[in-house]
UniProtKB/TrEMBL annotation:
<keyword id="KW-0560">Oxidoreductase</keyword>
<dbReference type="InterPro" id="IPR004136">
    <property type="entry name" value="NMO"/>
</dbReference>
<keyword id="KW-0285">Flavoprotein</keyword>
<keyword id="KW-0503">Monooxygenase</keyword>
<comment type="similarity">
    <text>Belongs to the nitronate monooxygenase family. NMO class I subfamily.</text>
</comment>
<protein>
    <recommendedName>
        <fullName>Propionate 3-nitronate monooxygenase</fullName>
    </recommendedName>
</protein>
<keyword id="KW-0288">FMN</keyword>
<keyword id="KW-0216">Detoxification</keyword>
<dbReference type="InterPro" id="IPR013785">
    <property type="entry name" value="Aldolase_TIM"/>
</dbReference>
<dbReference type="GO" id="GO:0004497">
    <property type="term" value="F:monooxygenase activity"/>
</dbReference>
<dbReference type="Pfam" id="PF03060">
    <property type="entry name" value="NMO"/>
</dbReference>
Amino acid sequence: MFSLQDLGAPVIGAPMAGGPSTPALAAAVSNAGGLGSLAAAYRTPEDVAADIARTRTLTDRPFAVNLFVHAAVNAARPAGTGGSVPAAGSAEREAAVARYRAVLAPEAARYGIELPATDASATDGWDAKLEIVLDLDVPVVSFMFGIPPADVVEALHRRGAVVIMTATDDAEAAAADAHGADLICVQGPLAGGHRGTHAVEKTPGRRSLEALLAAVRAVTDLPLAAAGGISGPGHAAQAFTAGAQAVQVGTALLRTPESGALPEHKDSLAGGRYTETRLTRSFTGRLARGLRNGFIDRYDSLARAAFPEDGQLTAPLRARAAAAHDADGLALWAGVNFADACQEPAADIVRRLAAARR
Ligand SMILES: Cc1cc2nc3c(=O)[nH]c(=O)nc-3n(C[C@H](O)[C@H](O)[C@H](O)COP(=O)(O)O)c2cc1C
């Protein structure tokens, strides 16, 4: 069974859905002594199986597969209730999605496309993907956006898999502990990509990663991986001092040769056109941090917290922007310290971060 203690380098390569996480990147991180991750979100189950098989041809070390816990399967709370998000399927929710559809209509017209029908209960192939990670004996399975159901955690444990759950505060960490997590990824405010709040509408707090780690340590004895803005050994050392057993890094790996991020994404991180990041719901309805580009400027103030529907609406727009090499229409996910991301091989980055442990 996988154990953090067995890692030569206490560094987890963050799962990065949407292209950056390739088998080559996951294997490079694992081969350097860390724990590489594959991102199952937005992939078909067949693609996930192929990614796992390919990763196994590149490394014989453990790696993780990450799944989004959509509201329909989230054991943290009933789907879509409470807060400022009207329940999935309610007339109010449908009206909110219809409003955002109208907001995006001119953008769709510009590309000559129709925005798709939305499905609030979509789970992104949850059952099929779980079957794959179980059947293929994936050693580590990590979850984002909530708590997987008890039978899922039990099934993974029966197969000997280690279960990682993501938490953005101490209450979510306590829930992860109570629901069978073996390791908690504590995601702080500087993180790139989606915030892993267990409720869609929640605005995560601004406590520093170090303060967050201390608060989480007070509610659980589980090993912790610290994530968010860790771009060099100084940040990693701070996280280890604050009680983390590992660091999880995403943005730092985006420009590596092994990363599958679009060239426009890699180039934008290198600076010039975009100078800051912004936390926005405009791409998917869930809060996520990306380089502040034209899409965010146009739609951030009009976006609503309807996930996954808003992501379904913007997906074809983002695909068109990608085809047109238009960085201004892409979700350029990035953590606050994106300027430190460099083009080095992933193994060098892992080794540099791991050195902070000594
Ligand atoms: C491009 C990108 C995609 C991401 N996709 C996922 C994902 O699919 N699953 C997940 O658990 N976290 C995802 N994250 C968040 C990371 O797990 C992690 O919390 C974050 O990268 C840490 O902050 P950093 O980017 O400053 O290192 C993503 C982050 C980025 C930058």
